Known about the structure:
Elements: H1 2-22, H2 28-54, H3 62-87, H4 92-101, H5 107-151, H6 156-167, H7 170-183, H8 190-201, H9 203-214, H10 223-251, H11 256-266, H12 273-280, H13 285-309
Helix pairs in contact: 1-9, 1-13, 2-5, 2-7, 2-8, 2-9, 3-4, 3-5, 3-10, 4-5, 4-13, 5-6, 5-7, 5-9, 5-11, 10-11, 10-13, 12-13
Amino acid sequence: MYGFFLVLPLLIIILTGNRLRARGFYSAEDVAALMKTLFYVILPPLLFRTSYIAGRDALSQPNLFYATTLCFLLTMLFAYFAARFAVHRGNLRRIATAVLASFRGNNVYLGLPVIQLAMGDKGMSEAAVYLAVTAVSFQLLSVAAGEMVLYGRLTLSGVCSMLKRLFTNPLILSCIAGLGASMAGIPIHFVLDETMKLMGNAATAVALLALGGSLDLSRMSAVVRIVRETWFDVLVKLALNPALMYLMLYFFPVSDDMRKVTVMLSAMPTAVNCFILARGMGMDGEYAADLVAATTLLCVAAIPLWAHILHMA
């Protein structure tokens, strides 16, 4: 029952953001400004601080790197073969979209709020370590695999674009900077620490409002059609991916808190940016949007279920 109450406050804020957007309180520009503020102003201090607190722990997590990378690869391979030979046979753009979205979850706008609510500061520290350890594999593997499916090869422009996104991402840079400062023994003055803490406290509400404002819930009116068309890829994202992560962490064990954080983040719905990436790379953007809508709707059941399995509930 706690799992349901874990997700309910998040849904209320998401729906609030969506209703404010639908009624004109937020314009599209306002929502974009919220997301930009979160991405560049609020989350970087939070992740810097939690990475700093985690310190050397991030560098003593080879098992986390092995488990997550292997899970990403296995999830993509399963999504590719299933899509190519059964689910989306003959539809190359949709196959590429299925591969791209197979493990790209909404770790920032929904995952971090879930972890904060369920596990508090300890969970956020572990989440920062997860983001730092998986930064390269999470970003590069999904985009590279999607492009290879679509074009049969990696293009130079695609590689350069991926590297640019990776090394200009303020969230990744914040994690790296926090870990570097911790390892170097650089002290953080309490005034700066309190400032970052206060900034971080705003992250959950702003992230959920921004997520609600960015979701096109009008698609939910066609929920039967969407679920019927996307059901297989929804299962890959909400069930197979976290199940594989759970299994990989059995072979490459980590601490109990890190295991909970890693599997729960793997159970997040499809990231909103999958729609942007799919459209920008010539994949099936409309199908990606349907995946975002369907997985976001069904995570109402998936998150409490995984919280129960992980004994977070």
